[in-house]
Write a structure and sequence with these properties.
single chain, about 140 residues, alpha/beta, five-stranded mixed β-sheet, 5 strands
Length: about 140
């Protein structure tokens, strides 16, 4: 729920020790993901796991745009979006977000997409040589 996302975001902002955030198998809205991503922008979280959360292409693109913000998400190394409703349309956005994040001094090197129903493995190999389906990996 959005209320739950707000509470979670508040906790993220005040917990400087949190390194891994797992919110798998929960129904989180686009607004909820945006709220959590805002809280993560300047946190020490290194990994966020959102497996089976109903994340769509629209949500994945929003995440990608957030990851490109300068001076943000510097500690984040992994976003796991396994088993969500993401298609090939999101791949260029996520790959570009990783590149921009790294060029801005961030550490993001993996976006997990295992089991994403609309992602075509052959497309990943042919169109995005810097991506690996086990988790979009930077070269």
């Amino acid at each position: 729920t959005n209320a739950g996302a707000w509470a979670l975001a508040s906790g993220i902002r005040f917990n400087r020790e949190l390194r891994v955030l797992e919110i798998s198998s929960c129904s989180i809205s686009d607004m909820g993901v945006a709220t959590v991503m805002t809280a993560l922008a300047h946190s020490n979280v290194e990994s966020i796991i959102m497996t089976k959360c109903g994340v769509t292409d629209e949500t994945a693109r929003m995440i990608a745009e957030r990851l490109k913000e300068p001076n943000s998400y510097r500690q984040l190394q992994l976003i796991c979006l396994d088993d969500n409703v993401i298609s090939d349309k999101s791949l260029p956005h996520l790959a570009e977000a990783m590149r921009v994040n790294r060029s801005n001094g961030g550490k993001l090197n993996s976006v997990g997409l295992r089991g994403a129903g609309g992602v075509d493995e052959e497309h990943v190999v042919n169109e995005h040589s810097d991506i690996w389906l086990g988790g979009l990996l930077m070269d």
